Amino acid sequence: MSKNKEIAEIFERMADILEFLGDNPYRISTYRRVANILSELNVDVEDLVKSGKIHHIPGIGASSVEKILEYLRTGKISKYEELKGKVPEDLLELMNVPSIGPKTLKLAYERLGIRTKDDFIRAVRSGMLATLPGFGEKKLQNIMRGIELWEKSKERMTLIEAFEIGQEYLSYMKRLGDIIERIELAGSLRRRKETVGDIDMLVSAMHENWSKIHEHFVSFPDVKDVLLKGETKSSVVLKNARQVDLRTVEPHQWGAALQYFTGSKEHNIRVRDIAKMKGLKVSEYGVFRADTDQWIGGKSEEEVYALIGMQTPPPEIRENAGEIELALEGKLPKLLSLEDVKGDFHIHTNWSDGIGSLEQMVETAYHMGHRYVVIGDHSLSSKVAKGLDMERYKQQWKEIDRLRKRYEPLGFYILKGCEVDILPDGSLDLPDEFLAEFDFVVASIHTRFSQDNTYRILKAIENPYVNLIGHPTGKSYGTREGYPLDMDRVIQLAKETGTALELNTFRADLSPENVRKCMQKGVFIAIVTDAHAPAHLRYIELGVGLARRGWAMPELVLNTKDVEGIREFVYKKRKLLAAT
DNA sequence: GCCGTTTTCGGCCCGACTGTTTTCAGTCG
């Protein structure tokens, strides 16, 4: 775990404890804000300390800097050690349960002597909790339901899962037809965060239709439980334990609401703060004059931001990580967009472990609007993935040649590629003379995930025929951290050799932090779906979003090149390494 | 705990729903 995340977690825990103790709420939200800033930061906190920049991050004041320095020096924060002694830590875990907050826990702790999570659950079941003032039957039911829900869905969804659920729900909602003026998925899904807690849906419609819309929303066939249902706000839990929220607003409030429900929370707090300094008030219903409460705009997001005097930051970078300052100065960079993407670099067919035929994959990519695709089936040593030997690759090339006759006249190119295994000693699973015959080579690690793999990756990068390092950090979506890796050295060597690093949509590897490093160092990234079925190809849209979270610029994304550009990229590396 | 285009003190984003409550607290996003 990076130091950023470690320290962020401690600040989050301290906030929990302080909340339980009933401390100053503003101090608590400050701690949470520091935690959030640290975990969203695209830079190592250690680097910030070295450069002294740590003292100039808005939201992190002297007292927090002190704690951060202490942690880096000693591995501990004494304030946290002290706070830990004041509460039963096990019990605080329940703070994440829906319907349970600090007040409930504290009451149970003080009045019933409850010390552990299990104590608490027993107290609910035995009816002991019902003896407390203000705890009626309904409330207890909600708490019970909250505990069940929490146990089932401790993990956040992957972006892909959230996207799938969201799309299905959207098309269900659209059956209502014209009474819905606009509808969109907001929240962390719209910001393309690699994991999503719950799905936020926003609808604009005339007020008289709202109740009908909410009725329809809670009647979605996969709904298991309705958590709340009102005129403006409803919330359901699906059979798969995922939560979906709906908000309705008037058509003229659309932009303000979308801005608000897209978040992030940190971004919004900052925006409202700035609005306030300018004598304005921003809510999900619009932008208002602070003195008279007069509505002055909010039809579109652009209008909201313009009224506050800033550019509209793309949703993916709304994390209060520097985008607000740039937007105020009118200096937001132009980020990569889906329209810039011309191809995909790493897709599988049923020649190895994909479930689509070569032809199906190509056909789908063509109809999506791609101009080219790199076929990247596994090499032999990936036995579970039915890896190909040289003979079978040659057979596959014959089929590619046949398909080329059909697609090249349409301006669509099929590049012969492979995903060659990087072996334990860093050598590759196919000989150089053979690799030289591919149009494009992806090299990836599929074994020994627990060791430091820096030397293997560096050695693969040095190979003149390797153009892209597949899923470089070995991370598994949102949860597993990947193997230890000296990313700075990898990026440096990638830069020197003209090798690209892969942003793998299926695994959410590279992280935004690493994308940003690549951008700063001038290293190319390639966004790939790693598609194993035709339907996976459309996830390229999510890959673009993940790249945008790392402030990816079109100039350094391989997918923006046309097929000649790709051939040139390959040729340049071969020439460079042959010369040295 | 943080911060400053009225401020180094005194504010801190803003609103919805539920439940148990005769006017609001707790929780959530």
UniProtKB/TrEMBL annotation:
Keywords: DNA damage, DNA repair, DNA replication, DNA synthesis, DNA-directed DNA polymerase, Methylation, Nucleotidyltransferase, Sodium, Transferase, Ubl conjugation. It is found in: Cytoplasm. Residues 52-71, 92-111, 127-146 form the Helix-hairpin-helix DNA-binding motif class domain. It catalyses: a 5'-end 2'-deoxyribose-2'-deoxyribonucleotide-DNA = (2E,4S)-4-hydroxypenten-2-al-5-phosphate + a 5'-end 5'-phospho-2'-deoxyribonucleoside-DNA + H(+); DNA(n) + a 2'-deoxyribonucleoside 5'-triphosphate = DNA(n+1) + diphosphate; 2'-deoxyribonucleotide-(2'-deoxyribose 5'-phosphate)-2'-deoxyribonucleotide-DNA = a 3'-end 2'-deoxyribonucleotide-(2,3-dehydro-2,3-deoxyribose 5'-phosphate)-DNA + a 5'-end 5'-phospho-2'-deoxyribonucleoside-DNA + H(+). Repair polymerase that plays a key role in base-excision repair. During this process, the damaged base is excised by specific DNA glycosylases, the DNA backbone is nicked at the abasic site by an apurinic/apyrimidic (AP) endonuclease, and POLB removes 5'-deoxyribose-phosphate from the preincised AP site acting as a 5'-deoxyribose-phosphate lyase (5'-dRP lyase); through its DNA polymerase activity, it adds one nucleotide to the 3' end of the arising single-nucleotide gap. GO terms for cellular component: cytosol. Residues 2-319 form the DNA-directed DNA polymerase X domain. Its EC number is 2.7.7.7, 4.2.99.18. GO terms for molecular function: class I DNA-(apurinic or apyrimidinic site) endonuclease activity; DNA binding; DNA-directed DNA polymerase activity; phosphoric ester hydrolase activity; zinc ion binding. SMART domains: HhH1, POLIIIAc, POLXc. Residues 343-424 form the Polymerase/histidinol phosphatase N-terminal domain. Its cofactor is Mg(2+). CDD domains: NT_POLXc (cd00141), PHP_PolX (cd07436). The keyword Transmembrane does not apply. This is DNA polymerase beta. InterPro entries: DNA-dir_DNA_pol_X (IPR002054), DNA_pol_lamdba_lyase_dom_sf (IPR027421), DNA_Pol_thumb_sf (IPR037160), DNA_pol_X_beta-like (IPR002008), HHH_MUS81 (IPR010996), Hlx-hairpin-Hlx_DNA-bd_motif (IPR003583), NT_sf (IPR043519), PHP_dom (IPR004013). One of its GO terms (biological process) is DNA repair. NCBIfam families: PRK08609.1 (NF006375).
